[in-house]
Design a protein that fits this description.
183 residues, alpha+beta, single chain, five-stranded antiparallel sheet
Length: 183
């Protein structure tokens, strides 16, 4: 039995607790996952339920507006892909607020939730939802110049977009979420 999904769920819940955004229902869901043998760690049922619960949790955490997919032209390591995504986020923030954007907005002016997966041909592929408008032309230009292909669209169905994103995030157990603290 692969223990990684259980660790993954525990990390997600720890993040939620840190953000003071967890509810009693979330704690009950944790018990469901950890105690029910039907949801064997790593099984399709487990991953599907984890994606559904994570999506349900995320839908109300931000006003998700934009869906982005990034695909690499060539194979890169997961570490390199994460560095590239962080660089993209940094440059997007610098364009909007200047080099000292962290003094104004912290890590990022937009919340994001996404996941990383490997396509059949072996290249990394990101799905990501963000809660702000972003310059579509710039996103295409930046990602295509540096890494590969970008697809970006306005979200029309938040539930569907978040659920789709989380389906792929839990598939390979590579989930990234940024939700700034509310003041």
């Amino acid at each position: 039995m692969n223990p990684f999904p259980k660790v993954f769920l525990n990390q997600l819940l720890r993040i939620a607790k840190l953000l003071h955004q967890i509810t009693e229902r979330d704690l009950e869901l944790e018990k469901l996952f950890l105690d029910d043998p039907f949801f064997a760690a790593g099984s399709w049922s487990y991953r599907q339920k984890l994606a559904d619960v994570t999506a349900e949790w995320l839908v109300s955490r931000a006003d998700w507006k934009t869906f982005i997919t990034f695909t690499y032209r060539n194979e890169v390591s997961v570490d390199q892909a994460i560095r590239d995504l962080r660089y993209f986020i940094r440059i997007a923030n610098e364009i909007k607020f200047g080099n000292s954007y962290t003094r104004k907005v912290g890590h990022s002016y937009f919340s994001y939730a996404g996941g990383l997966e490997r396509q059949e041909r072996g290249v990394i592929h990101f799905h990501m939802c963000i809660d702000r408008e972003i310059d579509f032309k710039w996103v295409h230009w930046f990602w295509e110049l540096h890494h590969g292909y970008a697809w970006i669209e306005k979200i029309t169905d938040v539930n569907q977009s978040i659920k789709y994103t989380m389906k792929y995030a839990v598939k390979d157990a590579d989930l990234f979420i940024y939700l700034p603290f509310e003041v």
